[in-house]
Amino acid sequence: PIIVVVSAMGKTTNALEGIYHHFIKTMPGAEEKIQELQDYHFDIAKNLFPEKAPVFSKINALFDEIRHHISQKPSMDRDFEYDKLVSYGELLSTLIVSEYIGSQNLPVEYTDIREVIKTDSTFREARIEWEITTALARKTFTRENCIYLTQGFIGSTLSNLTTTLGREGSDYTAAILAYVLDANAVTIWKDVPGILNADPRWFPQAVKIDEISYMEAIELAYYGAQVIHPKTIKPLQNKNIRLYVKPFGAPMESGTVIHDIQGDLALPPVYIRKENQVLISIQPRDFSFIAEDNISEIFARLAKYRIKVNLMQNSAISFSIVCDNDESRIFYFIGELKNQFLVKYNQKLELYTIRHYTSEANEMITGGREILLQQRSRRTSRFVLR
Q1: Do 175 and 307 lie in a common domain?
Q2: Per-residue model confidence as pLDDT tens digits over 89-129
Q3: Final residue of a domain: which of 164, 183, 202?
Q4: Does 196 map to a domain?
Q5: Band (86; pLDDT cuts 50, 70, 90)
C-alpha cells in the first residue's frame, strides 16, 4: 500500500499556536483568530467541493471542538494543552484531503494516526512506544492497492491523550511508519527543488544538492536545517530506507536522495541560520573553576525546563550556552540559576552554522557583524552574531 502523511495547511500550526497562547493567558481575541482559521479552511474547501458537500459540516464540527476546548479553564500542564489544540491542524488538513481524494473515486482510506502511533506522555516532544506502534501499524495498513491517508506530527498515549512529536514532525511520522512497515522508500514533498545549501529566502544563490549520506543529513538536521525533522533520519538509516526530498510543483524532478554513501562527497558550503537565539553565560559566584559538578547542575535545570542547547562552550570560570529564546522557559531557567551562579545573557541573536566551510563562506556570513562566540572544527564553523 501507499501511505500518504499530511501536515497542517499553510500557516495553520502558527495560527493554532496563537490561539493556544490566548487560551493559556486567558487573553481576549481567541474567537477572532479561530474564525480567521475557519474561514481559511472553508476557502480551500470551496475551491474543491460543491456548496453543500459533507466536508463543510465536518470542518465546522472540528472548529466546534476547538471552541469548546478553549471555553474551559486551562489545566496546569501547558504542554498537554498545546498538543490538544495544535493537533487540530493535521486533523483539518487530512479531513479535506481525504474527502477530496474520495470525491475523485480513488481508493483512499482515512486513518487516524493517533490509533497507530503510540507515545509516552512527554507532551510536545513525545517519544515513540516502538513495539506497540509496530504491532498496531502492521494490523492497520494491510490492504494492497490502497491509498491510506493519515496525519503527520501527532500521536497519542496509551490512555489516548493526543501528543505531538516536535515542530515540523510530519517527516518523522513518515519515517516511523516506513521503519515499522519495512518500506522501500520515503518521499517528502516540499516547496523547494530538494535539499538546498541554504534557505533561498535569505540566500538567493542557494543551489540544490543531488545526494547526501544519512550521516550528513543528520548533521544538517541537528544544526537546524528546516527541510528535515531532526529525528527523521535514524529510523531510515537503521533499515537502509532511502529518503527522497522532491518538489511537489514538479514531481518528475530528481530532487535530493539521502542514502547510505561510503566515503566523502564533494559538497558546497551549507549555510544554516537560526534566529531569535539567546546566549547565556554562567559562572560560579566565588570565582572558582567551572567543573563537572557545576555543569551537572546547569544541565539538570536545562532538562527540567526542556531547553535544547544549540551550542555550548566553556572556559576556566564560565560556561556559555546558546538556545532558542522560548521566553517563558528561559525566564524560569535563568531565575533558578541566579540562586547559585552569576548569569549574563544576550537576546535577539543569530546562530549561523556552515558545514564544509571555506574562508570565503565564513567571511560572507560574519563580515561587518559583531561575533559574540565562534567555534570551528574540521568541517563545521559556527558563529553567534548580533
Answers
A1: no
A2: 999 999 999 999 999 988 899 999 999 999 999 999 999 99
A3: 183
A4: no
A5: very high
CATH number at residue 345: 3.30.2130.10
Q: Which of 135, 151, 183 is the C-terminal boundary of a domain?
A: 183
Residue 122 belongs to some domain of the structure: yes
Is residue 218 one of the residues assigned to a domain? no
| Residue 195 domain-assigned (yes or no) | no
252-302 per-position pLDDT tens digit: 999 999 999 988 889 999 999 999 999 999 999 888 888 888 899 999 999
Tell me: do 289 and 146 sit in the same domain: no
Q: Give pLDDT, residue 355.
A: 96
As for how many domains the chain has, the answer is 2
The model's pLDDT over 28-64, given as tens digits with 9 standing for 90+, comes to: 889 999 999 999 999 999 999 999 999 999 999 999 9
Q: Are residues 310 and 166 in the same domain?
A: no
**CB under 8 Å to 215, separation ≥6 — which residues?**
none
Output the pTM of the full model.
0.88
Q: What is the pLDDT of residue 165?
A: 96
Which residue segment(s) compose the domain that 40 sits in?
Answer: 2-183
177/295 same-domain check:
no
